[in-house]
Each structure stands twice: as structure tokens, then as C-alpha cells.
Amino acid sequence: MKKVLKQGDGETKDNTGNYTQELSFEELVGHDEKLKVFNDTVPAGILVLRVDDGKVVFSNRFFFEALGADGNQVLGDSWDDFFFDPEERQKMMMTFAIEGVVRNFEIRLKKTDGEIIWGLASMAEIPIQGEDLLLFAFIDITPLKEAEAEIRNLANHDPLTGLPSRRLFDDRLGEAMARARREETEMAILFIDLDGFKAVNDTLGHEAGDQVLVEVSERLHSCVREIDTVARIGGDEFIVIIERQDISRAMVVGDRVVKRLSQPIETPAGVANIGASVGIAVYPKDGNTAVALIKSADKAMYAVKKTTKGAVTLAS
Q: Which one, 100, 140, 231, 260, has least CB within 10 Å?
């Protein structure tokens, strides 16, 4: 008796008059050892789905291992359960409906433990007469997405302190100024330059200098609210964005910064004593653009730096 792939159960005759057993797709894979080996070794997750109900009729080893599952946890389930975002699945299906095929569609799936994995998905009909089946292939690109996220983080944050870099600061300043315009409120920026930091590097070493910068970032965070932004824009230069605050409130924060940064900082190499010169510019009084506002705060800071140091002053 021969085995052929046809729809339905039971037996029928072939053109030679012999009886043939009708096998479904999943039965065929189970009987064909070569096909089974191929699907278990191909370096991509593969699902075969029934069109009418979305049930999984076949899953290769790479797919259920990617989900942290076993074959029994995948077979017979609806593939709807595997997607992290139903809208992503809907967009993929719309693409399939329009183009008849999907290639390298970026999508997220859920592992059995709730972890999210990223992948490139492809989908096509399986051209088998009498069976409405879809082939879904998935290549795990989670390590690539994590690397991209790390690159973005490095581009937007200072690697030493973890504070926003100048690039991210500029974005947040633009957003803060837009909110101030919309709400008709004031906001301020504090331009902070450390006093005596070069002496720390010269006497205690650069490792101690790095530890001082990390401690400075933590102290600056303690001086502001959660909605405010603290950024490092240079070697020993920091900027703080204070939203929805007037001049008097900005001066209070500036005085707090000077006081906190004047306190000694313990390092393994010894005690570091630094200070801070702070210049404050208020939007829109001291500048109605980001460039103008930063320039005003910078100018005010240098006025302190050249005179008393360890103090705070407003832009003139």
C-alpha cells in the first residue's frame, strides 16, 4: 500500500488500481524521517498552521525551543497565543492579505516564561491541494535588537555616570521649552562647572576623578525632582533642566547644588574636595531658543568662575 498526501481520512485507489492511504501534512511529517530531520535542523523556527482556526499542526524544534517550550506546548495551540502585541500580528496579516506573502517582518513573540524575543517573520501558503495551510518561519534576532538598544543607550547616555549626554539633553531641553510655551510657564537651566576637579585628577589620580564624577551625578539627582533632567555635557560640566519653576525656585536649587557639591567626597585614594560654580538662565526671559538659553547660563557660570567660585548667579 502506498502513502500519498491527500485531504480526508480513509483509503482510495491510485491510477494503478492500488489502494492508497490518505495522510494529512502532520501525519506525513511524522512518517517521513528525512523530512522530519530536515525540519528539526533548519536554523529557523517553523510553524505550519491551519487557515480556518490558526491551530498549529506542525512545529520544528527551533521554534518551540525559542519559546522555551516543548512540542506538546505548541502543537494544537492557536498561534495567537505566541504574539506579544496583537497589533503587530494584525499588521503582518494585513501585509499577507495584500501581497500574498510576508518577508522579513519584524515582530515580537512571548516565551513561556513571559520574556519577549524579537524576530524576522516570513509567511506563505503551502501549495498542497485540498489543505488550507500556512507556513510561518521565524528567525530570532533578539541579540541584534539588544545590541542596537545598547548602541542607542551609549549614544544618549554618558558611559561613566549614566546621565543623559549632550544629544539627549538637547532633545529634552527642546521638549521642556515646548511645554513651557504651551503651558505659559517658566523653566530654567543650571550650567554647572566643578571647581577644583583638575586638582583631584592630579593628586588622587584619574580613577578617583571618575569616582568623584559618579558621586557628583548622584548628588545632583538628590537636588532636583524626578521630572527634572541632570545631564553631563563635558569633562566636569553638567546641566540641569528644571521645569515649571520660576527664578526664585531655580535659585533655591542652585544654592542646594553648591552646598551639596562642596561637601568632601571619599575615594579609595583619599578625600576629594571640590566645589561648583553655577549659572542660571530662565526661559523665556534669558533666551527663547535652546542655543540662546544655554549661552546665557554658560555666560553666567563663567562670571562666577572668574570671581568667587563656589556660588550661583543668574544670567544678566
A: 100
